[in-house]
Amino acid sequence: MSLTKTTIIDSINIVGEFKTILVKEVTKINDGEELIAEKTHRSSYQPDTDVSTLPEEVQAVANLVWTQEVKDAFQASLPVVEEEA
Predict the structure, then answer these.
(1) What is the largest CA-CA distance in the chain?
(2) DSSP state letters, 53-65
(3) From CA 30, how far away is CA 36, in angstroms rounded?
(4) What is the DSSP code (8-state) at residue 67?
(5) What is the mean pLDDT of residues 64-71?
(6) The pTM is what?
(7) Rounded to whole angstroms, how far apart are CA atoms 15 and 9?
(8) Beta-strand (E) ranges in the chain?
(9) Which of 11, 19, 37, 38 is deepest in the core (most CB within 10 A)?
């Protein structure tokens, strides 16, 4: 038999005031029809994330929920760091 590795986006969730995107990816390794290993990886993205670095499915969601209003509110919520002179 031959080994095959498949990675899929299992779920995309949007949570919170600033529309944080939570992504669950599942990687499966099969020997023919038999599943021999499975791994889950989770990622989270805030509205200041460079959308071009995300998988296409996640980009589509980000472009839908991260309106300019959401991005501006997220930026306004960040603490102001004062630089020392």
Answers:
(1) 66
(2) GS-HHHHHHHHHH
(3) 5
(4) -
(5) 97
(6) 0.85
(7) 17
(8) 3-15, 20-31, 34-45
(9) 19
The closest alpha carbon to 58, from 26, 15, 11, 17, belongs to 11
What is the C-alpha end-to-end distance of the chain, expressed in Å? 66
Q: So what's the pLDDT on residue 66?
A: 97
| C-alpha 27: how far from chain center | 15
- Report which of 5, 38, 36 is spatially closest to residue 24, judged by C-alpha positions: 38
Nearest to 17 by CA among 80, 59, 66, 81: 66
**Is residue 12 within 8 Å of 21, Cβ to Cβ?**
yes
Cβ-based neighbours of 8, under 8 Å, separated by 6 or more: 25, 26
The C-alpha atoms of residue 36 and residue 40 are separated, in whole angstroms, by 14
Residue type, 80: V
